[in-house]
């Protein structure tokens, strides 16, 4: 399958979503030039095997290794490549609606624009304003007719980011996928069908741990609402942490009758203290349309964090009946 390479599929997906800040960046700050290390030209390796063999096993190490290209030796004319190999992270949609992360190896044969960009020099550093983000740096190797390979440095601009010419050349590469393997699940088919996130934080515990006071009053709950229930299990290793992450267990739209029963229990609930020393092993998020949420603990202190108006969240005490209605 032919596809165009995109910078956003190169490094770790979560990290690229927000960029990467560099210490010392800021308005008017002088940006140090790149410190190119090693020999004058990229090291020539005997035989290309695969991305799996060349890349570090840990994904955080892969991200760090990709950005090392900003300080590696730049390409000269001593090596004559005939193809480029791109090692990248991708997202694959499953037929059942879920998605998974993949490690992909792709090959490009038309290198005209890429080689021209890789042979550009670094721009002189600047004392002008530079943003604190760092665009994704692709993990690219060049292969010659004898299957020898080099990993060239990426030329940088005045803010020590990949030059625009390189970014455009890379984004314009037409690649053929050589291999692809699943490295992890992003969203299960069940979570996608339910309309729930695969993971969600226990916001009742998180908000209560901030030391907030329960000063607000419970706002009116809509009599009729399009409501969705998402239930999450909290692993023992997450319980009691600053922001416990729960994994999807079950969920889906609530019927009108179920919402009416849940609404009645929440409306009749008593105020609860935000403080709690018994982390929940399970919680539910009830999402209301056009707006508002109920975060309900299945055990532990069995609190409700109701956020149904423009004011702060309100802590209430759950009941046996509400627990049965929400968790079964």
TrEMBL record:
Q: Which domain of life is it from?
A: Bacteria
Q: What is this protein called?
A: Uncharacterized protein
Give the originating organism: Actinoplanes philippinensis
**Lineage, opening ranks:** Bacteria, Bacillati, Actinomycetota, Actinomycetes, Micromonosporales
């Amino acid at each position: 399958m032919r596809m165009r390479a995109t910078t956003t599929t190169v490094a770790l997906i979560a990290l690229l979503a927000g960029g990467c800040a560099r210490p010392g960046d800021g308005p008017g700050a002088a940006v140090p030039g790149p410190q190119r290390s090693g020999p004058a030209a990229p090291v020539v390796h005997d035989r290309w095997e695969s991305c799996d063999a060349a890349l570090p096993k840990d994904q955080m190490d892969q991200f760090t290794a990709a950005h090392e290209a900003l300080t590696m030796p730049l390409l000269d004319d001593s090596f004559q490549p005939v193809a480029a190999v791109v090692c990248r992270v991708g997202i694959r949609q499953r037929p059942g609606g879920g998605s998974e992360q993949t490690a992909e190896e792709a090959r490009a044969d038309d290198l005209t624009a890429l080689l021209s960009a890789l042979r550009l020099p670094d721009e002189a550093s600047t004392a002008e304003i530079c943003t604190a983000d760092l665009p994704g740096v692709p993990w690219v190797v060049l292969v010659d007719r004898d299957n020898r390979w080099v990993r060239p440095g990426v030329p940088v601009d005045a803010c020590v980011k990949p030059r625009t010419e390189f970014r455009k050349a890379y984004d314009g590469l037409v690649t053929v996928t050589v291999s692809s393997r699943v490295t992890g699940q992003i969203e299960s088919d069940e979570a996608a069908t339910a309309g729930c996130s695969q993971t969600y934080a226990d916001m009742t515990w998180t908000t209560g741990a901030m030391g907030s006071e329960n000063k607000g009053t419970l706002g009116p709950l809509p009599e009729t609402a399009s409501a969705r229930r998402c239930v999450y299990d909290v692993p023992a290793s997450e319980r009691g942490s600053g922001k416990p992450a729960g994994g999807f267990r079950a969920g889906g739209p609530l019927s009108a009758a179920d919402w009416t029963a849940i609404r009645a229990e929440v409306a009749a609930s008593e105020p609860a203290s935000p403080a709690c020393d018994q982390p929940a092993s399970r919680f539910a998020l009830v999402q209301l349309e056009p707006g508002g949420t109920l975060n309900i603990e299945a055990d532990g202190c069995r609190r409700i964090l109701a956020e149904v108006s423009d004011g702060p969240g309100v802590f209430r005490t759950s009941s046996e009946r509400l627990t049965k209605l929400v968790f079964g």
